[in-house]
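Box 4.2: Ligand-aware structure prediction
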Amino acid sequence: MIHNEVIDTMLKRRSVRKYTDQKPDDEVIETIVRAGQQAPFAGQLCSIILTQKKKLPWRAPLMFTICVDMHRFELIMAKRGWKTKTSDLSIILFGLQDATLMAENMVIAAESLGLGSCFIGAAAYTADRFQKTYKLPKRVYPFVHLVMGYPAEEFPPRPRYPLEFTLFEEQYPELTDELIDKAMQVMDEGYLAQGYYRNLKGKIHLEGDRKETFTYDTYSWTEHISRKWGQWNADPKELLEPLAKCGFVINRKRRRSS
Ligand SMILES: Cc1cc2nc3c(=O)[nH]c(=O)nc-3n(C[C@H](O)[C@H](O)[C@H](O)COP(=O)(O)O)c2cc1C
């Protein structure tokens, strides 16, 4: 594998959940956001609210709330005499891609400057709450938080699937038991070696009549994510409603405007 400064920065990045009290200065923050802006975009459908004043998760000094923002461009369209005809499903699809690429550029820029970060994904389900807090206009959807600061913990990067479980040449392969088992082993052993879920006290409680058979000696990534996708958020309303409150109606065709 090739190594250089950029690749090594990306390979050592990991989510940080413990921060020092040191506040990043304005130049650091502006550099990170400016590097974020330079990500590829479909329509620059992203804006960011920076919070530094409140008590933030893991006592981080900074939190960026990453938003899909169609409000800003609709102001520009109005000046050009246009109204949006594209469905909100398309706008959200491209907006999420724009915003995610920008956020990840920020993560890597921060890492290169000695800062750590961690996303918090629950915002998408409570977007309307942040709408009030941040005085967001309609057509702005705050969907994820990114906390950031100087790390107060040291640990190695977390594992990823083996490359052969991710990169498929020309066509999707038959995923054999051997490939699946190897991928599960790499992930589970990697997280167990760090005591990841034990440290986070992150075991997901079992719903229904499934009996708990895991301890923190055996509970790891594949069981955790299976419990997550196997139990949570079955009703699309949980996302469609906050989206609608933010002015994005996903399951309706847009009326023709002149
Ligand atoms: C969209 C998204 C949402 C996330 N939400 C949370 C969260 O709510 N709480 C948390 O502790 N970590 C959260 N994470 C961090 C992941 O748990 C972490 O990226 C993953 O375990 C891989 O670990 P690494 O980033 O250290 O490689 C989130 C990451 C992403 C990309």
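In the box above, the bound molecule is flavin mononucleotide. The chain has a mean pLDDT of 96.
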